[in-house]
Amino acid sequence: MNDPRIIVALDFSSAEDALKLVNRLEPRLCRLKVGKELFTAAGPQLVEKLMRKGFDVFLDLKFHDIPNTVASACKAAASLGVWMVNVHTLGGRKMLMAARNAITQGSTKLIAVTLLTSMDQDDLTDIGLQGSPEQIVERLAQLAKDCKLDGVVCSALEATNLRQQTGKDFCLVTPGIRPSGGQADDQKRITTPRQAIQNGADYLVIGRPITQATDPLLVCQQLHAEISGLAV
Question: Of 36, 101, 190, 226, whose CA is between 20 and 30 Å from 65?
């Protein structure tokens, strides 16, 4: 069964720009992530169009609200038929449980954001969270697992500890992926695709290294070949 581990982040401001890129990719090599900017600009119609092209879609809207509102949003997302949707662990146990109850297990994957990969220790101090990024991520990941979510979004730098903590069936989705020699851009906690897989990541969210490449399909093929050899 084909299970692409690369998730291409469609960080575009219009459906037209996103589709130009998607038309140069192949569903057998990657899945697609639609985030806040693109979803706000293009709406569920684009998500449906991407799925008709054969792509699995990760709807990355990081729902974070009162439990009833998040449950309704998750139910609506699942009704679109997306492969994966996420919520924010900082919404707390009641919210996470409401989200879990809104989506039938075994259908749309439900995962939770721990800490954004743009955040470092100074950011945590500013907002009053105690502990290192690694400690906070571990606490939040355990909360998501306790609430029977399918997995979490985390930095690949934290994946090794989380894999040991949560077991092999808990899904780890890692942004902040940059090929060797690539620029970090606005990400703080980053690593390479090879390192991420070796650390225990299941899926790698990759944006600019693919979307801004001269030949995005070739880059996707190269990354797919690299990590396929490390599949466990």
Answer: 190
